[in-house]
Design goal:
185 residues; mainly beta; three-stranded antiparallel beta sheet; 1 helix; elongated
C-alpha cells in the first residue's frame, strides 16, 4: 500500500513541536521547553490519509492508524516511529501508563534517544510523529536458480549448491530478492 498524502494545517508549538489538538495539550499545559505558555503557530504539513504518518519520504504505508481505544500495534512485528525512524524496543510489560520502553534513532546523528509509549504505541509527550507503527521488514538476499532445457527451474541458496546439477541444465542465474515481509501474500 502506498501513502495517500494530503496537506493539512495544524497548530504546533514553536518551542516544543507539540500539536494543539491531540487531546491533552491545551493552553493550561505549560511548554516542556520554556515551562511557560506554548507559542502556537499554524503550519502546513503533509500527512497520509491512511496511517497518519507525517511526510518523511520514500516509506510504504503501514495502513490505517486504528480506532481510538483499540490496539493498533502487533508487538511481535517490526515497528518504526510514525515519521519513519528506526526503534529498538526493550520492554513491553513495564506497567503503568507507558508500558513500552525503548529508544529512537535520531535522524541526523544515528544516536539513540530513550522513549516510552502507551500500550497503543502513543509517544509519552504527545508528539504523534514518534508514535509506534508496525512496518514490514525488508528482505534482501541473493539466490541461484538453475534453468533446465524443459523450462523448469530449481532455486538454491548458494552458488555451489546450484552447481551440483549438470545436464540438462542450461544456466545457473543469480537473482536478488528485494521485497517486504509478506509482500505478494
Amino acid at each position: 500500500m502506498k501513502h495517500d498524502w494530503t496537506t493539512i494545517e495544524e497548530l504546533r508549538c514553536k518551542n516544543c513541536g507539540k500539536l494543539r489538538d491531540n487531546g491533552w495539550i491545551t493552553d493550561s499545559n505549560p511548554c516542556v521547553v520554556t515551562h511557560l505558555d506554548h507559542k502556537w503557530t499554524i503550519v502546513d504539513t503533509a500527512r497520509c490519509k491512511n496511517c497518519g504518518i507525517y511526510y518523511a519520504g520514500g516509506t510504504d504505508c503501514p495502513g490505517p492508524k486504528g480506532e481510538p481505544g483499540k490496539p493498533t500495534l502487533d508487538l511481535s512485528k517490526h515497528m518504526r516511529t510514525r515519521d519513519g525512524r528506526e526503534v529498538r524496543i526493550y520492554a513491553t510489560d513495564a506497567g503503568g501508563a507507558y508500558p513500552i520502553h525503548g529508544s529512537i534513532a535520531k535522524p541526523t546523528s544515528g544516536e539513540w534517544q530513550l522513549g516510552r509509549w502507551t500500550g497503543r504505541g502513543e509517544y509519552y509527550s504527545g508528539l504523534d510523529t514518534l508514535d509506534l507503527v508496525n512496518m514490514p521488514r525488508r528482505i534482501k538476499r541473493d539466490v541461484w536458480i538453475n534453468v533446465f532445457k524443459d523450462g523448469s527451474i530449481f532455486l538454491h541458496l548458494t552458488k555451489p549448491e546450484g552447481r551440483i546439477y549438470e545436464e540438462p541444465r542450461i544456466a545457473c542465474v543469480k537473482v536478488t530478492i528485494d521485497c517486504e515481509e509478506g509482500e505478494g501474500m
